[in-house]
Amino acid sequence: MTEQNNNKPVPTEAGKKAMLQAVKGMNDILPPESARWEWFEEKVRSVMARYGYANVRVPIVEPTDLFVRGLGEVTDVVEKEMYAFEDKLNGDKLALRPEGTAGVVRAMIEHSYLRDGGKRLYYSGPMFRHERPQKGRSRQFHQFGVEALGFAGPDVDAEVILLCRLLWREVGLVEGRDLRLEINCLGQSDERRAHREALIAHLTAHADLLDDEAKRRMHTNPLRVLDTKNPAMQVVADAAPKLLDFLGEASLAHFNGVRAILDAVGLAYTVNPRLVRGLDYYNLTVFEWITERLGSQGTVCGGGRYDGLIEQLGGKPTPGVGWGMGVERMLMLLEEAGVQVPAAVPTVYAIVPSTGVLNQAMLTLEALREAGVSVQMHAGQSSMKSQFKRADASGATYALIFGEDEVAQGLVSVKHLRDANVAQATRGLSTVSDWASELRNA
Ligand code: ATP
Ligand code: MG
User: Fold this and answer.
1) Is the domain of 272 the same as that of 419?
2) 241 cis-preceded (ω within 30 degrees of 0)
3) For residue 364, what is the domain's CATH number?
4) Fewest CB atoms less than 10 Å from the CB: which of 40, 94, 132, 155?
5) Residues 280, 423: one domain?
6) What is the pLDDT of residue 8?
């Protein structure tokens, strides 16, 4: 962590404590925004369950070497974006995870978890990359990801892509309108090597048009040069030899296998021969879900096959395929697409005009909550007017009014806050369980 961030101590005025701020590019997620997160997370979990993917939770901090070996030394993530540091207490070289796959694979190897066959897993949580914060790009961001380990595909390649499609449908996004799928095949390492030589020759011939980074990477990772966002280099990238033309029969058969399934299930895609993805571990199928609604941060989900990774990290050779999805970008996309996310509001707001009725009110509210009704109670003493104002602002459908006279008669008033045509009614305090369901189903 080299760069100085913005949480320098603010000068202290007499009597005032210095204000602490979050680390630049790392965001707080507060209500009501957090309710949108929970809604989305719930949708993801439900889809994962329907495909038989089980949750895996691994540490946020791993040995730096895991990412260097797993992701590749000449990648943006490892070269420029990783929060790597030394543990002051014991000198261990550690890093905040910049992505999820390496940690999951490490865990699988460490626990010999794949010994009895393939596993379908998903994870979620924060990832860390030291990038320039901007719209759709932060330093702590969140991903959902899936890893299907031990399956050589192409059926499982298609499955993990289809899982995304169901998720889009569940959250109200429309493929074609809100996002689209691009796929490519990166082949195997010998095919990539042949292509690489042709590519380096092409880049060398056009070196005058390359920027400094491209010149530097041309020999170490020329595929990444094609992934350039520099418009001046597009011509060179467009005319470059295409990896697809270097693929042998087996790779093409795999790719065609994935395509045939996507065709059969009516999932539209475009083949983008330039799609390479930013990390070294991919082979064969790679894909991205892209939206036009978020400007240049348009990739909401990306992934592919990584058959060499497990072996590279010290495990038995085992195929794998997966993807990672940026939750912030997904939520932004949902907003841009006009998807209405139900607000997290209580069904009932309890108005408690005086402390004399408090015990009785709380007894009733506990019974309601046990019956599954969500109830927010007015806390502290305030005027009826301000309590009704709060009730209204809470978004609750009903107000329960524990007036002194009613409570003395064993009653409580139920007022519909959103429909003036519904007459106010009274209900018995001792018969909560009889009328709780009427509120729960509101
Ligand atoms: P980009 O090209 O936008 O930098 P990437 O290829 O680095 O993306 P991946 O490593 O494939 O991204 O991560 C998968 C997903 O995680 C991305 O598609 C995106 O939705 C999200 N993501 C990646 N980096 C960030 C970030 N800094 N802030 C927010 N979301 C991110
Ligand atoms: Mg990136």
Assistant:
1) no
2) no
3) 3.40.50.800
4) 132
5) no
6) 55
Task: Tell me the per-residue pLDDT of 247-299, one tens digit each, with 9 for 90 and over.
Answer: 999 999 999 999 999 999 999 999 998 888 877 788 999 999 999 999 988 99
**How far, in Å, CA of 300 to CA of 304, rounded?**
14
Instruction: Compute the distance between CA of residue 28 and CA of residue 24 in angstroms, rounded to an integer.
Output: 11
The closest-lying atom of ligand 1 relative to the alpha carbon of residue 81 is 27
pTM of this structure: 0.89
CA-closest residue to ligand 1 atom 6: 278
Interatomic CA distance for residues 73 and 221, integer angstroms? 10
Please, which residues bridge with residue 125 across strands? 143
326 C-alpha to ligand 1 centroid (Å):
6
Instruction: Tell me the two tokens of residue 14.
Output: 């007499």
* Residue where the block lists tokens 């806390």: 379
DSSP 3-state assignment of 216? helix
Give the sign of the dihedral formed by CA 227, CA 153, CA 292, CA 129. Answer: negative
Closest residue (by CA) to atom 14 of ligand 1? 324
Residue 68: inside a domain: yes
- DSSP code for 308: T
The two beta strands, 320-326 and 119-128, are unpaired
Mean pLDDT per 10-residue segment, the chain (442 residues) = 50 72 97 96 98 98 96 88 98 98 98 96 98 96 98 96 98 96 95 92 92 88 81 89 94 98 98 84 94 93 96 96 98 96 94 96 97 95 95 96 97 96 96 91 64
Q: Please report the atom of ligand 1 found closest to the CA of residue 143.
A: 16
Q: Check whether residue 121 and residue 269 sit in a common domain.
A: yes
Q: Please state the domain count of the chain.
A: 2
246 Cα to the center of ligand 1, angstroms:
28
The three-state secondary structure class of 350 is: strand
Is the preceding omega at residue 346 within 30 degrees of 0, hence cis?
Answer: no
| Closest CA relative to residue 291, chosen from 330, 245, 319 | 330
For residue 312, the model assigns a pLDDT of 94
Residue 355, domain extent: 348-440
Residue owning the nearest CA to atom 28 of ligand 1: 137
Query: Could you tell me if the CB of 328 is within 6 A of ligand 1?
Result: yes
The bound ligand whose nearest atom lies closest to the alpha carbon of 143 is: 1
* Amino acid at position 30, single letter: L
Closest residue by Cα to atom 22, ligand 1, is 326
Strand partners for 310: none
